[in-house]
Amino acid sequence: MGVEVVVEGLTKSFGKQTIWRDVTLTLPPGEVSVMLGPSGTGKSVFLKSLVGLLKPEQGKIVINGVDLVRCSEHKLYEIRKLFGVLFQDGALFGSMNLFDNVAFPLREHTRKTEAEVRRIVLEKMEMVGLVGAEKKLPGEISGGMRKRAGLARALVLDPEIILCDEPDSGLDPVRTAYLSQLLIDLNAQIDATILIVTHNITVARTVPDNLGMLFRRELVMFGPREVLLTSDEPVVEQFLNGRRIGPIGMSEEKDQATMAAELAHREAGHADGPPDEDVRGVVPQLEPTPGLPPRGAVRRRKDRVMSILHTLPPEAQEGIIASLTPDEQRHYRVLAGAGDRTGPITADPITPSPWPRQGGVL
Fold this sequence. Notes:
Number of strands: 10
CATH architecture of the largest domain: 3-Layer(aba) Sandwich
Order of helices and strands: EEEHEEHEHHHEHEHEEHHHHHH
Structural class: alpha/beta
Distance between the termini: 21 Å
CATH superfamily of the largest domain: P-loop containing nucleotide triphosphate hydrolases
Helix content: 25-40%
Strand content: 15-25%
Number of domains: 2
Radius of gyration: 22 Å
């Protein structure tokens, strides 16, 4: 299973410009997480910091007991072997065919024979649907194929952590849907810890187990998908609905006066689109392709969500409970010691919640 990534109090600046400060979160092992945020909020900088390509000024990044911010170059080199990275453009070598591009990390970092290299490369290319394209050059294939080739290359060293920097950039909605399904299928097969940076609302709502949001140089929220999809945090709600009204502006964040004027305008009946455009709620998550094993991450995440359910607002509780299947409702009743009674779980905020707090990250 993938490894846990613990980030504590991380701050990164370029000169006098602070990119983000005091970022604290935990990427749960074997789960898929997404980091959201408007353009220019430092999402790609965060990925590069996690893998040690950039060094934060403060804080910790702890993986397998090693702090990547303060460890030696030798330790950093060893920890980097746990990572596979999919860059925005695939970062393929234009003069190499796809086979040689995917094989490059194996030839560079291992002493495997060419027979072993060929077996591994073909296995990973099959996983991403590129069998038969081994001899093609990057310039001869579509953007979607280049993304998949970049993903195959990220997988050849069997990483426990996969970082994807805007994997949907430059792709049409259909290819984005295929790539989203591919990432879910990979997680089902190898149970790796995956972090995706994206602007895509559909990806954010349907793919990850956990969601995070960077804004105004801070991490606004990070937690299970159910918590953020039902959140009334203004910037999270605005982003996930793709609305103009909210803290996010065109070139920079809005001041309080602008936000107040927008709110008054909306309350006067001049809404930003019809009321039924609000899509806040727990939408179904992508499932692995039939024939693949179920994702262990789903049960781990739902167990964590139910352990903190009583701490959430009533509306969020109701949305989360409504998203459970009847079998899941029975399962959590038994865990809570309520027995396998019939009838729906209720989220009455007046009565104590039957869900015990068991710890874990929000």
